[in-house]
Amino acid sequence: MGMNDTPSGERIHIGFFGRRNAGKSSLVNAITGQDLAVVSDTRGTTTDPVQKSMELLPLGPVMIIDTPGFDDEGELGALRVRKTCQVLNRSDVAILVADSTEGLGACEQELIRLFQKKEIPYLIAWNKCDLQKRLPVDSSQECCVSATARTGIESLKERIGRLAKTSDDKLMLAGDLVHPGDVVVLVIPIDKAAPKGRLILPQQMVIRDLLEADAAAVCVKEYELREVMEQFRTPPALVITDSQVFAKVSADVPPSIPLTSFSILMARKKGLLDAAVAGVRAIEACKDGDTILIAEGCTHHRQCDDIGSVKIPRWLRNYTGKQLRIETCSGMTFPDDLSRYSLIIHCGGCMLNEREVRYRMKCAQDQGVPITNYGTTIAYIQGILKRSIAMFPHLLAGWDETPQ
Predict the structure, then answer these.
(1) What number of H helices and E strands is found in the chain?
(2) In whole angstroms, what separates CA 288 from the centre of its chain?
(3) pTM (2 decimals)?
């Protein structure tokens, strides 16, 4: 991904839902202007969610998701319906594609119930209106379209735009923490776990965010930090580090200079940080045999000293002195039943949109399972959590100088 590309987690996710053969895929193709989804008269042609990153005016960068029919049947059909429900968890806007020649049935009513339950802004797109002499009501929540005749498509786009939460409404990563002209030091380890030839996504995003805030970003490796800090005539306004080197960076950065991590900033942006700070205390209650879930939003080739599957489990066991069971999940896979876990430690969520992260957080809270994240966990274990969240005063209530 280039620095100017919009990450999938920052795109508005627009899901298209409905029964089989309502014309979801045809409508997706009409909106995107591409043959994104396979179209056929055969019911159930779409067997898996199909997604496409694109620019959709007037919204800008979006993720379009076409889903299987919600009325699919049989054992495979049930799996497809489950995948459709998973798409609901990350949809910022839902489009219910209804066949105007058939009206709303039980399938559509159930989808509307789910939209409302999950508080997803939705719109009913009455498809195949070219086949109707008497058209359905065209209101603020409904519109008439024809995927084959290409009518009503621009109007549908405009209505989607009014429903969607744009990037202007979203919280910045770090730009709101600094002022124009400030210098921010970014500590970026380049080791065997670092991707070849590029920076990881949170690092790219923070750099872009700071530039847009008219601040200067100075990037250093952890063993260069002390020397670079000594060269500043005016101390930097902020230091942001990779969580894996939190302890060393904290020792090298004077206490008067604010310090946090990419992971903590990402958790804040995605709406997870408050729960992460509250949930990290559960580490103290860990007992022998407890199972901890470590969840990542992306899928990648795990290195020999991988942060999620190796380093954090090692630090947890060393800190607690307990025999802990560690389970992992990655990508869009997240367990429905969380009851067997004593704690969930989630990544920053850079590859997930805010709605997906908040959904996972709510699942944990509803089942009474504490949830935290990578950066918060590492800062806590290393005794520097209070310092790493000091710029967010509402999080400090109840914390001693040494959190542990």
Answers:
(1) 13, 14
(2) 32
(3) 0.82
